[in-house]
Design goal:
Number of strands: 24
Helix content: 10-25%
Radius of gyration: 17 Å
CATH topology of the largest domain: UDP N-Acetylglucosamine Acyltransferase, domain 1
CATH superfamily of the largest domain: Hexapeptide repeat proteins
Structural class: alpha/beta
Order of helices and strands: EHEEEEHEEEEEEEEEEEEEEEEEEE
Length: 218
């Protein structure tokens, strides 16, 4: 088994801990060393797993890493910081009760949670998060840092551009593109393309905010 460290000891970190335990229950795969987290001080244990220190603890160590941060912009910043420190081995985690169809590619560092469905001829980029019971239909593409919250749905041939986020229970209809670093609000139904940096809400979804270009780098 390969050593694994979870970066992020918040709520999503505990969900990823459960994901790792569920994977190991079916086939022992990961030796979980512990968590690292910038903000964590005490206690030095979380859900029975040690908190090893801040992410700098990883420098010079040989282990796989998974970044357990829900926000795509923050996840990207943390990955960039880790790579600058020499981290290169990002674990790809797929829950044993997720349904993954034929001709699906999954990039390094991505996570697919319990009860998620990815049907067929789908491409997922690096550091993509597909959360609990989300559905990605045929011929969809999710670019790097793309995020689907619980029960989000992409219908056939929809596309999430880099860093786009679809919140809980929202649906992107067939063939629609959601632009880079945009956000689809919870429960929305997207029937028209979403531009870069837009936030859309409602049924049908409409734009309520446009963030500044490159806001994710701030």
């Amino acid at each position: 088994m390969m050593d694994l460290v979870i970066v992020g000891a918040g709520g999503h970190g505990r969900e990823v801990l459960q994901l790792v335990r569920d994977i190991n229950a079916v086939k022992p795969t990961w030796n979980l060393s512990g968590f690292v987290d910038d903000a964590w001080t005490a206690p030095r244990e979380l859900a029975g797993v040690p908190v090893l220190g801040k992410p700098d603890w990883l420098q010079g160590r040989s282990c796989a890493v998974t970044v357990a941060i829900g926000s795509p912009a923050v996840r990207r910043k943390v990955v960039q910081r880790l790579m600058a420190a020499g981290v290169r081995d990002f674990a790809t985690l797929v829950h044993p009760e997720a349904r993954i169809g034929a001709r699906v590619t999954i990039g390094a560092g991505s996570m697919i949670a319990v009860a998620a469905v990815v049907t067929t001829d789908v491409r997922l980029g690096q550091h993509v998060l597909v959360n609990t019971a989300a559905v990605i239909s045929h011929d969809c593409e999710v670019a790097d840092w793309g995020t689907l919250a619980p029960r989000a749905t992409l219908c056939g041939a929809a596309r999430l551009a880099e860093g786009a986020e679809v919140c809980a229970g929202a649906t992107v209809l067939q063939g629609i593109e959601v632009g880079p670093w945009s956000r689809v609000g919870g429960g929305a139904c997207v029937i028209n393309p979403v531009g870069a940096n837009e936030t859309v809400v409602g049924v049908p979804a409409s734009c309520v905010r446009v963030r500044d270009m490159n806001w994710q780098d701030a």
